[in-house]
Write a structure and sequence with these properties.
24 helices, Aminopeptidase, 8-stranded mixed β-sheet, 908 residues, alpha+beta, 10-stranded mixed β-sheet, 46 strands, 5 domains, 25% strand, M14 family metallopeptidase, Immunoglobulin-like, disordered N terminus, globular
Length: 908
């Protein structure tokens, strides 16, 4: 049974009943059967496009003369007049988009009847990138019955045809069969000995396979690259550079990676299937190239020669769930192209581990739909962890090569390179994007944005892949030398000043890497303590080591106690040596960040800083060789387990990690008793939890919690916790974070606590409850409601962000935090006035250095202002934070502020 046809037929029935669309969407299974029983309808074509006008000649011999004026052409069992054009919104009330433009008439004096039918543009445009259209057009894709019907006799001639957005479009469920077909065709061709390997990288949030294909000359080429060439490149790049210089490198291949991460930008998926077909099955691939004057010329890729130079890697889409749902985001509501550094989502964790494994030379991330056919490299400011001088010239050349081939392969007439055409606003400062993440591995990383959702853009995107292949194979040795030079700088610990001219301020002046008086931008080591005396969050310290290893960064641990400038690091301390090939990636996620607030525009937040945003202690060490001979390399990250001490009746659970919150929520969900200390006494610190020892033991293997016996501290003053019922309004990311922490999410009507980071605020819904507002949008609607007297805020812009120093007050809502913290603001907001009776939880520091990193023009206005407070108004409590507690799942250090606020809102 064709499930897709059945489902589309069911959708057609629903839409016919609701009048949302004027006609059925596709042929049902029954219709297709009827077509096989009818007179055969001959057609000149059977594939039609929503983005190209196409005509079809149809004919059939009914064996007798008919009243031609009564003959009717039908599509999907409906009259053509019922297939109306889109008229806006979800309405289809325009003129018919399918019309008979010639006939019906008899052919050559026979009883054969012919006609010409035109399939026009359902949406009055060949570009379906408009977001309203983009959410609807896929409903019309499918197989239909095209029929010529005589209503008098009831006879019809019919056949099955296909309507697609463009010819090559595939739904997610069609991708693996298409891949399998290529594999089968290669296997069936006795003369084709190319190596193909399919890998299931992992699964998406909803359990769909992430497809990955390797195409190479042979398996030996893959093995040599992964087991010989790449390890040498990362450990001893100078050796390979010498071989390239003296001509003794011999046979070698470099990886070219094609990628898609926004699956509703559909060409990026389908173009890869087309490139796989061409490169795997054809001996020669000929395409039209253009030069700087748009003069066209044919170019032929001889695939045996190409595969002597390159290994092709196809990541058809990082986001299978988005391909199914036709969305940019994954099933958790995250834009994965903002998660490549944070890696909070399973898809980016799995795919980026693979990128780290392969370390491609060329990385092309296929996107849409920026008007004009945009190709990176991007505008400044540039991330200072790139060896930009070794990347930029080659990236510009490859961008031109991709653009010229894209234009030559399509009806597009031009492309543009963001860095050459724009001053700012399309920057590569953050490693959140896939292409920028790849650049930290030494790749020529490009985001490519075709301008339209159309047949033409599909052809252009295929051309992009062809142009990239041509450029890499024609320049392989020189390109690989530059990548090896990047690795060499890392291995040698070299901060080469040649990069400085590319790191400019908004005035275009070179400022170089910000070294703050140090000889090198990079420290010699990052030290991450793992003992409870030097580390405030042992769990996050171990998770950081796990992250770095997953991303191809070397991590070591001390084999004995080491003293550094009066600080003693015990055995087992993590050491990140910065004399390594991937030091740029390590530094990008560990360094404090830069202040780029002088720029007029930035595309996305730039603060990464894992130690601050995940909340663990880390030290820089600037003394070469200090840990030499005192460490061993860590093979894999291991998250610690809980260690329960003593057999007393109760345990003190430190309020120190997010696992503690998960643990408390699990206990409350199971009806167990949990108390929170309201004072510090003995071994107990205010905000710690008290739990019966038997209950702790039952959960100890599921969470990392830090415990010690309650002892005499059992007499401390406490509050009993009840399981809070929480409603989340606003972002999907907030919803994700709350679920991560184990809170039971309900609708607002049934909630005890409503948490919001958006502008959805209902004064009736919050009456008698607790409301927690996060960020500028939530604070603004509360302010505008007038429910809190003397409450005002200020904002520069809703997308301004910054890591700031904060003064944190001693309060149950801030339990587990220090008096001075680094907190993160993402909506350019601060609080200017609060009610007299309100309790201030945190304030922006008064110091001139309160602003640490980010992009926040006008941040000076926040200095010394209130960041968070709590107050009671009649029967409703309000806790409002100008800082962000749950931004993209990355601000985990702030999660406990959120958890404390929720627990305290419902405690007894």
């Amino acid at each position: 049974m064709n499930i897709k046809k059945v489902m589309i037929g069911w959708l057609a029935l629903v839409m016919a009943l609701t009048f949302a669309y004027p006609t059925s969407l596709t042929a049902t299974e029954q219709t297709v059967v009827e077509a096989s029983e009818a007179i055969e309808l001959d057609v000149s074509r059977s594939l039609f496009s929503l983005t190209e006008v196409r005509t079809v000649d149809i004919s059939a011999d009914f064996g007798e003369e008919l009243d031609l004026e009564q003959l009717e052409v039908q599509f999907g069992g409906k009259s053509l007049s019922e297939w109306k054009k889109w008229s806006g919104g979800s309405n289809y009330e325009g003129e018919p988009f399918i019309n008979v433009i010639e006939g019906p008439s008899y052919l050559d004096g026979t009883t054969e009847v012919g006609a010409t039918v035109e399939f026009g543009l359902l949406y009055n445009t060949s570009n379906l990138s408009n977001r309203t259209i983009r959410t609807q057009y896929q409903d019309f894709i499918g197989d239909y019955e095209l029929a010529l019907v005589d209503p008098q006799s009831g006879e019809k001639a019919a056949t099955t045809v296909t309507l697609n957005v463009y010819d090559e479009f595939l739904f997610y469920d069609e991708l693996k069969p298409a891949i399998d077909e290529v594999f089968a065709d290669v296997a069936a061709d006795g003369e084709n000995d190319r190596y193909l390997e399919y890998q299931k990288v992992g699964e998406s949030v909803e359990g769909r396979d992430i497809h990955f294909v390797i195409l190479a000359r042979d398996e030996a080429a893959v093995d040599k690259y992964l087991n010989e060439t790449l390890p040498t490149a990362l450990e001893d790049p100078a050796q390979l550079l010498e071989k390239l210089e003296n001509g003794t490198m011999g046979d070698y291949q470099i990886p070219v990676w094609f990628n898609n991460i926004h699956p509703d930008e559909v060409e990026g998926v389908d173009a890869q299937i087309e490139l796989l077909k061409k490169f795997a099955l054809e001996d020669e691939v000929t395409f039209t190239n253009t030069d700087e004057s748009n003069n066209e010329s044919p170019v032929t890729l001889h695939m045996d020669d190409v595969l002597d130079d390159a290994i092709f890697l196809y990541m058809f889409t990082n986001n299978p769930d988005g391909r199914v749902a036709n969305t940019r985001s994954n099933a958790e509501g995250f834009d994965l192209n903002r998660d490549n550094a944070n890696q909070t989502q399973v898809e980016t964790q799995q795919v980026n581990e693979l990128i780290s494994k392969w370390t491609p030379l060329s990385f092309v991330d296929m996107h849409g739909y920026v008007n004009g056919f945009l190709i990176e490299p991007g505008t400044p400011p540039h991330n200072p962890n790139f060896e930009y001088d070794l990347l930029i010239d080659n990236m510009l050349e490859q961008a031109h090569a991709m653009g010229r081939a894209g234009v030559g392969s399509s009806d597009l007439t031009s492309y543009f390179i963001a860095q050459l055409e724009w001053e700012d606003g399309w920057d590569d400062m953050t490693p959140a994007y896939t292409a920028m993440y790849a650049m930290l591995h030494g790749s020529l990383g490009h985001t490519v944005e075709v301008p339209t959702l159309s047949q033409d853009s599909l052809r252009a995107m295929v051309g992009v892949g062809l142009g990239s292949t041509l450029y890499v194979t024609e320049n392989k040795d020189e390109l690989y030398k530059e990548q090896l030079e990047i690795f060499k700088r890392g291995v040698n610990g070299e901060d080469n000043r040649a990069v400085d001219e590319y790191f400019v301020n908004a005035a275009g002046e070179s400022i170089g890497r910000v070294r703050n008086g140090q000889e090198s931008f990079f420290p010699d080591y990052y030290v991450i303590p793992t003992d409870d005396k030097a580390q405030k969050n042992i769990l996050e310290a171990h998770k950081m080591a796990e992250y770095l290893l997953r991303n191809g960064v070397k991590v070591e641990e001390t084999t004995r106690q080491v003293q550094v400038n009066g600080t003693t690091y015990p055995k087992g301390t993590y050491i990140v040596p910065m004399n390594q090939a991937k030091r740029g990636l390590a530094n990008a996620v560990l360094y404090s960040g830069d202040n780029v607030s002088d720029w007029n525009a930035m595309y996305d937040p730039v603060v990464v800083n894992f130690p601050a945003l995940r909340g663990f202690d880390m030290d820089e060490v600037r003394e070469e060789g200090l840990f030499s001979g005192k460490t061993v390399e860590v093979a894999e990250g291991v998250v610690p387990t809980s260690n329960i001490k003593g057999n007393g009746p109760k345990q003190i659970i430190k309020n120190s990690t997010n696992d503690t919150v998960k643990f408390v929520n699990a206990l409350l969900a199971d009806g167990k008793s949990v108390e929170v200390a309201t004072e510090s006494k003995g071994n107990i610190v205010k905000g710690d939890y008290l739990v019966e020892t038997k209950d702790v033991r039952a959960y100890a293997n599921q969470y990392y919690i830090e415990t010690h016996p309650a002892g005499k501290g059992a007499s401390v003053e406490t509050q009993s916790l009840t399981q809070p019922k929480v409603a989340a309004t606003g972002s999907d990311q907030l919803n994700f974070s709350l679920r991560q922490l184990g809170f039971e999410l309900v609708d607002a009507a049934n909630a005890d606590v409503i948490v919001s980071d958006g502008s959805n605020f209902n004064r009736e819904q919050i009456a008698g409850k607790s409301f927690i507002g996060i960020g500028g949008r939530a604070l603004r609607v509360v302010e505008e409601s007038g429910l809190i007297t003397d409450f005002t805020t200020a904002q520069t812009r809703a997308n301004h962000e910054g890591l700031v120093k904060a003064d944190v007050n001693d309060h149950p809502f801030t339990a587990g935090y220090e008096a001075e913290e680094l907190l993160y603001v993402t909506t350019g907001t601060w609080i200017t006035d609060i009610p007299e009776e309100a309790e201030v939880l945190a304030s922006f520091s008064e110091g001139d250095d309160f602003y640490q990193a980010g992009w926040w023009p006008g941040h000076e206005g926040a200095k010394g202002q209130t960041m968070a407070f709590t107050t009671q108004v009649e029967d409703t409590s309000y806790t409002l934070f100008a800082n962000d507690l749950a931004f993209r799942g990355h601000t985990e250090h702030s999660y406990r502020l959120l958890a404390n606020s929720i627990f305290q809102s419902t405690s007894n």
